[in-house]
Design brief:
This protein is mainly α. Helices cover about 55% and strands about 10% of the residues. About 0% of the residues are buried.
Length: about 100
């Protein structure tokens, strides 16, 4: 423990300000998942599967779920692609 920070695996945890410092590879992976709207695509697919299960329906073909996931990713990415002047500090608009 150095300066109040504990090193757990590859993560540095500061108990005083609740900050977790990630290694660059993990940080890039998380940015890709969340800023690349992959999380939205996964959520849409999983919600469609859950709805089919709750209603006791047969799941649709895998092509439907691929199209649903990719369509969701494309839709949410497009909204940030055409921002002519992203606001300073908006990491998501600057990432695309």
């Amino acid at each position: 423990m150095i300066c109040g920070c504990a090193k757990v695996w590859n993560f540095t945890i500061d108990p005083y300000c609740s900050v977790v410092t990630l290694p660059p590879l993990y940080r890039r992976l998380l940015h890709t998942i969340f800023f690349g709207n992959i999380f939205y695509g996964m959520a849409a697919v999983l919600l469609a599967l859950e709805t089919a299960a709750k209603l006791h329906l047969q799941p649709l073909s895998w092509q439907f779920y691929v199209l649903l996931g990719l369509g969701t990713i494309f839709f949410y990415t497009e909204s940030y692609s055409f921002d002519p002047a992203p606001q300073p500090g908006n990491l998501r608009a600057g990432w695309i």
